């Protein structure tokens, strides 16, 4: 298959794969993604950084061939740098090794068993294990490796190419986004940050403390001064690293807006009426609101707004003494993401309609506390909310808005 590589810097080419069709991955919805991988041409050796999803080899190979032709070099990959073992980054590794059986493979110690597990034919393969501070010289192209465990898997690492000032960061700083443009400054910054925030919220939030520590490490060692470009394994390549580094610093530190995210489901529209009344109360305090109806909206979009909200309002009817089932999926996800690990505790209002004895509020409050939220208020009503009840919902929203503005 013929395909075209993209030169991103002197001797460095993007040879990744565009996946226009994928709609569900990593547990959330997306509008396509890219499997970014890169060729670096040194005087003595050529390195491939990461590779792509199983089944995508023809597109990847076409770009590799194209890059070698553009450089006027004989087709030979000497080194593979495997920054992360997950299958969307390593899925074509066996085909690369089959074509170049003498290549050297560099990865973290934690990556070795994972790669052998994915690809049993690598059981007797020789791995070059690297850690922070280790280096590799391709001949005028020098890498320093940086361990980055839990950003976002235990085996993850970064590779810094000094001469070009490129940090190959794998999943960190990425976005699940598929565009014809390759660089961050070639598209809408609002769109890009929104997708980067969704990526962070759904994948990186549990590792927020490690994000902070890694950013501090890059500063204290002076390595950050060498970074002119950040080339992640998904989405756009950042030609202004400060944009995404500052965003990561804010998200990891729990920096939030005066903002409330509503997430709810409803059976016969009673809880929905309470949502609308509560939203009006929050808006009366000039506080930003985002609202997600779980009957139609999906949780990965909702948690993207939870990330920089000071409070969430969770609405659910009671169903057989329990919350509506869609809320259970959300709460499990909250537990996975551990928003409290950003160092800031978010407030939560729990509310809804019940048919007789209730029970949803008690269960949701307990689960939200376990997930690290502070319960600001619980409120429920019997069947259809009256005007008086809706006025009380308005006041709850207003009080919540006043509270988060005062923080």
Question: What is this structure, in a nutshell?
Answer:
This protein has helices at 57-71, 87-90, 93-99, 109-118, 189-204, 208-220, 241-253, 270-283, 299-307, 325-337, 360-370, 387-405, and strands spanning 6-9, 12-14, 17-19, 24-25, 28-29, 33-35, 38-41, 46-49, 79-81, 104-107, 127-129, 135-137, 142-147, 157-161, 166-170, 229-232, 257-264, 288-293, 309-315, 318-319, 322-323, 347-354, 374-382. The chain is α/β, with parallel strands linked by helices and 407 residues long.
Helix content: 25-40%
**CA distance, first residue to last residue:** 57 Å
Task: Please name the fourth-level CATH homologous superfamily of the largest domain.
Answer: Ribonuclease Z/Hydroxyacylglutathione hydrolase-like
**Widest sheet: strand order?**
1-2-7-8-9-10-11
List how many beta strands DSSP finds: 23
Top-tier CATH class of the largest domain: Alpha Beta
Secondary-structure arrangement, i.e. CATH architecture of the largest domain: 4-Layer Sandwich
- Assembly classification: single chain
Q: Which spans of ≥5 residues are poorly predicted at pLDDT below 50?
A: none
Q: Provide the residue-averaged pLDDT.
A: 95
Structural class: alpha/beta
**CA radius of gyration:** 24 Å
Report the total helices.
Answer: 12
Name the beta content range.
15-25%
CATH topology of the largest domain: Metallo-beta-lactamase, Chain A
Largest sheet composition: 7 strands, mixed
Shape descriptor: elongated
As for the number of domains, it is 2
């Amino acid at each position: 298959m013929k395909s075209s590589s993209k030169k991103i810097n002197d001797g460095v080419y993007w040879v990744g794969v565009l996946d226009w069709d994928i709609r569900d991955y990593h547990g959330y919805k997306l509008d396509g993604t890219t499997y970014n991988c890169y060729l670096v041409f040194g005087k003595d050796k050529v390195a491939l950084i990461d590779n792509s999803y199983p089944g995508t080899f023809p597109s990847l190979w076409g770009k590799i061939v194209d890059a070698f032709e553009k450089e006027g070099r004989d087709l030979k990959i000497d080194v593979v740098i495997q920054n992360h073992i997950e299958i969307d980054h390593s899925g074509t590794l066996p085909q690369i090794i089959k074509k170049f059986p003498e290549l050297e493979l560099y990865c973290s110690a934690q990556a070795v068993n994972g790669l052998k597990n994915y690809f049993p034919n690598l059981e007797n393969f020789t791995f070059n294990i690297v850690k922070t501070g280790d280096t590799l010289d391709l001949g005028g192209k020098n890498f320093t490796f940086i361990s980055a465990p839990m950003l976002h898997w235990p085996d993850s690492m970064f590779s810094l190419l000094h001469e070009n000032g490129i940090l190959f960061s794998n999943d960190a700083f990425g976005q699940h986004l598929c565009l014809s443009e390759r660089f961050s400054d070639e598209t809408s910054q609002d769109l890009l940050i929104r997708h980067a925030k969704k990526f962070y919220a759904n994948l990186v939030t549990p590792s927020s403390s490690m994000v902070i520590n890694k950013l501090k490490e890059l500063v204290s060692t002076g390595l950050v001064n060498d970074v002119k470009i950040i080339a992640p394994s998904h989405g756009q390549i950042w030609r202004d690293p400060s944009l995404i580094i500052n965003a990561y610093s804010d998200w990891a530190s729990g920096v939030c807006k005066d903002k409330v995210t509503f997430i709810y489901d409803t059976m016969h529209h009673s809880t929905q009426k309470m949502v609308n009344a509560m939203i009006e109360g929050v808006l009366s305090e000039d506080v930003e609101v985002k609202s997600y109806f779980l009957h139609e909206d999906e949780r990965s979009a909702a948690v993207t707004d939870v990330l920089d909200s000071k409070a969430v309002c969770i609405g659910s009817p009671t169903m057989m003494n329990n919350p509506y089932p869609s809320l259970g999926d959300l709460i499990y996800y909250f537990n996975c993401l551990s928003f409290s690990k950003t160092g800031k505790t978010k407030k939560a209002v729990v509310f809804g309609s019940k048919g007789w004895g209730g029970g949803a509020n008690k269960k949701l409050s307990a689960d939200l506390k376990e997930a690290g939220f502070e319960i600001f208020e619980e409120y429920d009503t019997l069947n259809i909310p009256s005007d008086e009840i809706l006025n009380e919902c308005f006041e709850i929203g207003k009080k919540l808005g006043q509270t988060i503005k005062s923080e």
